[in-house]
Amino acid sequence: MASLGCWKCLSRPNTSQLIQGNHAALRLPTIAATAGFSTSAVMSKNPLAAKPKGAFGQNMARGGKTLKIKKKPPPVRSGKPPAEGERKALRKRIVLSNTNALEVELEDLGMSNVSSEGLTGKVVGLSGSTVDSLRASEAFKITQGWNLFRRPAILVREESVICAKVLEEAGAEKKTERLVVDGARVSGKSLMLLHAMASAFVKGWIVLNIADTQELVNACTEYSPVPDTTPTLFSQNTYTAAWLGRIGKANEAVLDKLQLSQKHSLPIPLQENLSLLRLCELGAQ
Question: Region Disordered: what ranges (predicted)?
């Protein structure tokens, strides 16, 4: 029969054995980790450890002054702002003469050579009265480069001669002639129209020129509805007054000799022998 003490020894560990086991475990030598290519111990620090607080630590504020750059305030306008319409007048300002350019003797456009085919391909000058009439009717454009020459002059082209002949035939037969000038950009359309108007001024005809037709349809001018009209019509009184003023200045020599021949119902009283020039002046007021 087995002893009870043996069963107790198997079921309960001995205290001396635990002490010896623990003591033996404490005596195990510590093996240092070494690199595969070296026999020395690793001397580097643990990369996962927290960085010490030093002069450049994250929680350490830097000493000295901090440079703060402020935004510059917007510039203060000290000058006088431009008046109404001053910028537009400066943008449309046209210089018709250059005193630094060489003076060239040119034949002026006149009654004798207004439709002469012999002038095709030649440059002719414009007289002072013709230039004044063209300026008043706003025939000159800023894209035509008039400030490069000493005096205004035009190149007589074949198309310009044909247009002048068509105008002469229409004037002789007293009929209405309608022409459309078409061409690419910067091909000389405005200069061709200027030549036609210059020919009309030389012949003593009345010229009615609308310089910028887009201003009549893009709401750049003042307009008001006309009462009792179906469909509703609009009147541009400001533009009409300015246009009458330009007509009177451009055709002053001709309109001063013409008088009213019919009676008109106008808001202002009119004299019987009133000249058309005076009528344009009254309409421009």
Answer: 66-87
Number of domains in the chain: 2
What residues make up the domain containing 173? 90-209
Distances (CA, A) of 11 to 33, 128, 247: 40, 138, 133
* pLDDT confidence of residue 7: 53
173 and 250 in a single domain? The answer is no
CA–CA separation, 193 and 211 (whole Å): 11
Q: Are residues 110 and 177 both part of a single domain?
A: yes
Residues 205 and 244 in one domain: no
Residues 193 and 130 in one domain: yes
Q: Which residues 6+ apart lie within 8 Å of 104 measured at CB?
A: 150
pLDDT in tens, 30-75: 555 555 555 555 555 565 655 555 545 544 555 567 778 888 888 8
In this prediction the pTM is 0.67
pLDDT more than 90, % of the chain: 35
**203 with 111: CB under 8 angstroms?**
yes
- Judge whether residue 255 has pLDDT over 90: yes
From 220, 209, 205, select the one nearest 243 (Cα to Cα).
Answer: 209
Structural domain includes residue 63? no
pLDDT of residue 123: 92
Is residue 47 one of the residues assigned to a domain?
no
Residues 200 and 219 in one domain: no
In the numeric block, which tokens belong to residue 172?
Answer: 């002789």
Residue 84: inside a domain: no
Please tell me whether residues 217 and 244 are part of one structural domain. yes
